[in-house]
């Protein structure tokens, strides 16, 4: 194997740890709440949401920093921070320390995504860039599909703490074999985005998530909930003003004048919210009302996480040929059907053949089509100089939506099946709105 291919596999495997981590946290979440049973679930949920919000706020700055400092240098720091933070999560003695560790880990996670993809795109040269990205995506897909079962095995026969040490070997291997990764060019003229805007976006999203998550416990008329929503509105409004006026904004609002970009952005937020919310709820449902073990729940989640690997290439070809709207709208319909099937058919009694597998297939196929569609459609019609910012923006919006989806789950779910039924209806409405937004994602089919 050539040096270039070794570097590609090394970076791809290391980058996949961030994908693995997301799924592991969902699988481990019930065990974490049991370990810290004295801590309210709304507070424990911040081990998920704090990470997502931090990654969302840092993705674009991390990409700009990697361009300026060098992708290799940032990647090395990123995998070190990510692995160290993951180990700190596993060692955390209480929830506040775990949340702090997750925030620290997010610095590495955001940089790992951006610098890792940049290294992959340059690993084999511009002529074979599509091949390199294909390898990177395949490795990430395999990691995502194996994560539920792998996490379930570790938690079942070890503990949830051990699962968070999986990133440590990856970090060690990258540092030991770092000579394989070539030096990358630096663009010292690359401007860092508005750092105050980054803080405003993070705090505004956190305030929104706090208000949603605590809505059921505190009540809509509680001054803390009202204050959280008011703070979110003010902070996000100031953020948008700064994006309009700052010479190097976090998000270029002018891109939203492009209908495809605007429609894809709305769809990305709603798809992110529905997927993260549904995935969060499915783990709770399998472990709670249906009473499966962690390992069994992980195995049952595998069809949902593996489905994107089976449909991604085919639906990508369809989008290339027929345009994104023709494929993304049915994808949203599949996710809606899966959510409604769970709401209508899932009860106290376990039913895999009639209820679980059809719903998991619908949701998995929908997600496996919608996410790649949003990631590719977002750049349609934009100038080459805007592609990196567009890619960072759609990932940011997906993460923000994901935080909101999990917060809705925290507020609505409990031990009663009826709570899940209502939640799945809400998610179905949300992803239905994503399909409506996708009607505006009109891209020109590739000419034969």
Salient structural properties:
single chain; 448 residues; mainly alpha; Growth Hormone, Chain: A; 17 helices; globular
What does this structure look like?
The protein is mainly α and 448 residues long. The chain folds into 3 domains: 1-187, MFS general substrate transporter like domains (Growth Hormone, Chain: A, Up-down Bundle); 194-249; 251-448, MFS general substrate transporter like domains (Growth Hormone, Chain: A). The protein has 17 helices and no strands.
Short structural summary:
The protein has helices at 3-35, 41-44, 46-69, 71-91, 95-123, 129-157, 160-163, 167-176, 195-213, 215-218, 223-245, 259-287, 294-322, 325-345, 352-377, 387-412, 417-438. It has 448 residues and is an all-alpha fold.
